């Protein structure tokens, strides 16, 4: 399997190289050169198998034989041994044909763990094989940073730096990053919003000298390995609800578009998905794009669902590539327009192709709090606010003849203030996932200045190099 850039000017890469590079040298995102497609019989044979077995079957065509099957199985098994639930991503029924797919049973109580735990082991395996080292720099709106640091803390050849918008993540999310105590993991609080952090990451990747100096890589959802790992739970949940004999729909709370794009990949692979519904908060650029055909950036509004407080949805570029019939010139034109004028208009053919696979809706903060209360009152279920955004949107798009699976992306304990405001209860983290009140926090607070951030990273790497030497 070869991997190509959505912008067409970067070299084709192998799976291992795409895994380590993350972002393409032309600013694009890597995708497989072709989609592996399973027959309905092959999909049916996955029903009832353990999560690890399904993951191995999904991964193998993307890995393309570059990693031995036994080694791949060992890494997958080890990754999901860190999860609290034997099903890894269990389904919970909340209505006659309404289901929640709980993705928060990993070490940091967020869906990011599902992919990040595997990604860390894959990257560590390849680096050890090659005798190389990497520096990971990423941006997080809350969950990715904690999940990445938790996953990569045991990787000897990787230094990890994550920027997050200061004061715009929950206390629990921040403390998951700042109390880890791992020497190779560094949290950087930026005086700005998530898009500022993400823009700095992209600018670092565009700086060839900086990339070469630090051996830069990415593990945000722009990394193909993340998307690949997320495809698995679309298969396991759909199989549990009757696929491939019958269709299943999914509603996904999303900001950066990676999680729902994985559902699109599952559909391309042959999984019979009826609807893919994008759920957003007031930062509704994805909903507006599907409704109007215009992708136009607005100021980010801080909400009770901070992981969706985003205007630049990086993985949407991957969808544009597919919707334009894999024509990189169209993607480059749209991305150039976004950079120059903060907007672009979807070509009619692209808009039509997207509308064939996706629908979208939004929920305000008031609607989100009311939905948390409704879920608790009607089903006895305590949800985090991001999940509530999605269940609210799911209700507007449900088809009574097709099961609707809403992705529950975080444990409610990560957002106690919002949950308490809605139902009057403070959700407690599961046993063993608590963070001690007196745990020491380590972080670097910085202005929104890419030069200063680069300097801080270089300084920290020099300190590490000196200590190791």
Question: What structural keywords apply?
Answer:
469 residues; five-stranded parallel sheet
Tell me roughly what share of residues is in helical segments: 40-55%
Q: Which CATH-level-2 architecture of the domain at 91-109 and 224-423?
A: 3-Layer(aba) Sandwich
What is the total tally of β strands? Answer: 15
- For the record, what CATH class of the domain at 91-109 and 224-423 applies? Alpha Beta
The neighbouring-strand order within the major sheet is: 3-4-14-9-10-13
Structural class: alpha/beta
Taking pLDDT < 50 over at least 5 consecutive residues as the criterion, the unreliable ranges are none
Q: Rounded to an integer, what's the Rg over CA atoms?
A: 21 Å
Termini Cα gap: 39 Å
Task: Characterize the biggest β-sheet.
Answer: 6 strands, mixed
| Count of alpha/pi helices | 19
What does the overall shape look like?
globular
CATH topology of the domain at 91-109 and 224-423: Rossmann fold
Can you give the mean pLDDT?
Answer: 93
**Beta-strand fraction estimate:** 15-25%
Which assembly state applies to the chains in this document? single chain
């Amino acid at each position: 399997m070869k991997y190509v850039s959505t912008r067409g000017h970067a070299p084709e890469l192998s799976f291992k190289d795409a895994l380590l590079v993350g972002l393409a040298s032309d600013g694009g995102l890597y995708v497989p050169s072709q989609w592996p497609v399973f027959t309905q019989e092959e999909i049916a044979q996955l029903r009832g198998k353990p999560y690890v077995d399904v993951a191995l079957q999904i991964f193998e065509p993307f890995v393309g034989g570059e990693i031995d099957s036994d080694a791949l199985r060992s890494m997958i098994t080890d990754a999901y041994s860190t999860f609290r639930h034997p099903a890894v991503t269990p389904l919970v029924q909340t209505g006659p044909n309404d289901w929640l797919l709980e993705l928060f049973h990993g070490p940091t109580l967020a869906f990011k763990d599902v992919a990040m735990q595997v990604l860390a082991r894959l990257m560590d395996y390849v680096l050890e094989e090659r005798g190389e080292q990497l520096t990971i720099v990423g941006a997080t709106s809350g969950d990715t940073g904690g999940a990445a640091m938790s996953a990569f803390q045991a990787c000897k050849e990787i230094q990890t730096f994550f920027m997050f918008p200061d004061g715009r993540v929950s206390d629990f999310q921040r403390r998951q990053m700042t109390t880890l105590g791992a020497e190779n993991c560094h949290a950087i609080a930026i005086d700005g919003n998530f898009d500022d952090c993400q823009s700095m990451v992209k600018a670092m990747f565009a700086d060839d000298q900086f990339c070469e100096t630090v051996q830069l890589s990415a593990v945000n959802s722009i990394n193909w390995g993340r998307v690949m790992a997320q495809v698995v739970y679309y298969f396991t949940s759909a199989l549990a609800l009757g696929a491939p004999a019958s269709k299943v729909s999914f509603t996904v709370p999303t900001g950066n578009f990676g999680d729902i794009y994985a559902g699109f990949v599952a559909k391309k692979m042959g999984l019979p998905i009826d609807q893919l519904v994008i759920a957003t908060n007031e930062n509704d650029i994805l909903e507006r794009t599907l409704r109007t055909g215009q992708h136009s950036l607005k100021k980010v509004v801080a909400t009770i669902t901070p992981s969706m407080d985003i205007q630049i949805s990086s993985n949407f570029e991957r969808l544009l590539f597919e919707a334009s019939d894999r024509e990189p010139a169209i993607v480059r034109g749209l991305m150039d327009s976004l950079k120059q004028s903060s907007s672009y208009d979807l070509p009619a053919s692209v808009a039509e192709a997207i509308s064939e696979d996706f629908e979208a809706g939004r929920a305000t903060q008031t609607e989100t709090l009311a939905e948390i209360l409704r879920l608790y009152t009607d089903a006895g279920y305590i949800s985090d606010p991001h999940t509530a955004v999605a269940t609210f949107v799911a209700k507007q798009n449900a088809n009574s003849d097709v099961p609707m699976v809403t992705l529950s992306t975080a444990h409610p304990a990560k957002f106690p203030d919002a949950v308490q405001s809605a139902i009057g209860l403070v959700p407690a983290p599961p046993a063993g996932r608590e963070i001690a009140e007196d745990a020491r926090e380590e972080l670097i607070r910085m202005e929104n200045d890419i030069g200063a951030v680069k300097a801080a990273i270089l300084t920290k790497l020099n300190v590490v190099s000196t200590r190791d030497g």
